Each structure stands twice: as structure tokens, then as C-alpha cells.
Amino acid sequence: MKAQPRCILLAVDNTPDLASTTHLVSAVTKGPAGPYLAGVKFNDVLDALWGHLAVAEAISVLPEGATVFLDPKLADIADTNRNRIRRYFDDVVEAPVVTISIHASPKTFVGIRQEFPGVRVAVMGVPTDWTAEECIARYGEPPDVLMQWWLVSLIQQYKAREGVGSPAELVIASFDMLVMMGELYPQFGCITPGIRDEWMLKGGQERVASTADALRGGASYLVMGTQLLKGNPDAGISAEESQRRTAEQVKEALGCSSKGLISPTLPMRREEERNEHSLVSRIRLILIACCWRIPRSASRSSSTSCDFSG
């Protein structure tokens, strides 16, 4: 999915009350980055006593066509996940985006499709505060390969239940996943977190990218919080100045972006390397598909069973 003119999802977290939350959303909407605002992302705000009101207030100040990104990263049982979405769904008039952990059961994805047909599901896998080395140490694979395995498993499990369709429209894809997503899963839009331009500090993020690099690399939407709400005061860059610079980066990237364009900082593989990457990816998919078709009774009796649930 190509990046949209409205490609910024404003992350509003750790606010003390409803008034300050609404003020931040309104200020960014009216500021230099406002024309590129696709929606506002709430995570911990959803757990506040006034979280329900924050969703409604955000919708009232967002530009036409923008929506609310509910980011609870649901990973509980299917009934609990649906109950949480139901608490906010009635207030969201434009199709909301909801993040579901890729580790949630296939029942969750099927149930959300059936009960909330207006919801756009975004699948979440590896958080951007993990380094690639930490991911490899725990799972044996870097983030892009790990996400590839998890996605193919989820898609197969979903289709085994539904027969047709897709469990999601969007994937939370960090910068290091964008090449893989473009090659293997072009049907999904990519929401890229961890955006930190050169004038910003990394903060709590580890795997980061600039605005222009992420858009040119294939991101459909960018998640930004600190960069738009705080800037970098230690370097003399106010929130409004950071918004202005970000808007310029978006304008530049969208003005010259096209399908297949590779960012200058994205590792540029030689043609034979790209072909090898695609071949290895296809072999992995075949192996996963073969393992998935092993009868349950056979897998139980085997001493080495295949489990790609993550």
C-alpha cells in the first residue's frame, strides 16, 4: 500500500487528564503537521477513567477523514479482546484501527471480523524497543524474518477457519521489516513506529528510522509522538519547530515516492542478493506450509513438532 497524503498517526500517551489530551490533539491538528494527520493513537489513555471520553473528544477535533487508532495490542482470549473493543467502538464513527497482537488466537481475528466489520485490524509483532540482537537471542531470528514466519502462520490459521479473507488490513512494521513486507505481503498497509529524525533523540526506541526513509522504504503510515509533541528542547527545537521540519520531510518524501523506490539509507541489495532473499523466503514459506499440514496426531507422537505460534 502506497503512503497516503495523510500518513501521520499521532501517538498521545501518558497525559494526566482529558483536557490536556484534547489540547495536544487539537494543537497538532492546527499546526504545521496537521495536513498530514491521518489519526490519533491512544494506548494507556484507553485505561484512564476518562479514556472513553478522550476517544470522543479526539474525533471532534480531528480533521475530516482522520480517525482514532486504538492501540491496546490485544493478546488476551477472544471474548476479552472483543469486550475491550466494544467499549470504544460506538464512539468511533470513521472506521477505527485496532492493534491485535499476532500472538492472539485465530478466534480473536475471526470474532472481530464478524462483530466489528468496520474495524481495520493492525497486527503487532516485535516492539521497536527491542534491538535486533535481543530478538535473535530470544527467538533465533531477526525481526523481519520472525514477523514473516508469524504472519504466514496467522494467515493460514485464519483461512483454515474462514476459508477466505484476511485477518488484518495493516501490519505494525518497523523500518527493518519494510523490504520483507513489500516483497512478500504487499496486500498489507504498513504502520511504521520508531520515527526519529536527525534532530531528535532515540529515547525509548531502539530500531528507528527517519520520516523520509520510512515513507520511501514503503511505510503507509508513521507513528509519531515525542517528535510532534515535545521536539528536542535540549537542542533548542520546540514542538512546533519539530512539527514544521517533520511536515517538510513528509512533503519531500511523498513528492518523490513511488512503488519500489529504495531509501538511500536502506540496505541496497544487488540483484542476485535480492533474488537469493526471495528464494530463501519462499523456501521458508514452503517449509511452514508443509509443517502446518502435518496431522495433529502425528505431530503429537513426534519428538520434534513444528510450532510457529511464536
Task: Describe the protein in words.
There is one protein chain. The protein has 310 residues and is α/β, with parallel strands linked by helices. The protein has two domains: 8-268, Aldolase class I (TIM Barrel, Alpha-Beta Barrel); 271-302 and 306-310, no CATH class. Helix content is 45%, strand content 13%. The chain has twelve helices and eight strands.
SS strand fraction: 5-15%
Domain module count: 2
Total E-strand runs: 8
**Arithmetic mean pLDDT:** 83
Q: What is the third-level CATH name, the topology of the largest domain?
A: TIM Barrel
For this entry, give a set of tags.
eight-stranded parallel barrel, alpha/beta, TIM Barrel, globular, 310 residues, disordered C terminus
Question: How would the blueprint of this fold be written?
Answer:
Elements: E1 8-12, H1 18-30, E2 37-42, H2 51-61, E3 67-74, H3 78-89, E4 97-101, H4 106-115, E5 120-124, H5 132-139, H6 143-162, E6 170-172, H7 178-184, E7 189-192, H8 211-217, E8 221-224, H9 226-229, H10 239-256, H11 271-292, H12 296-301
Parallel strand pairs: 1-2, 1-8, 2-3, 3-4, 4-5, 5-6, 6-7, 7-8
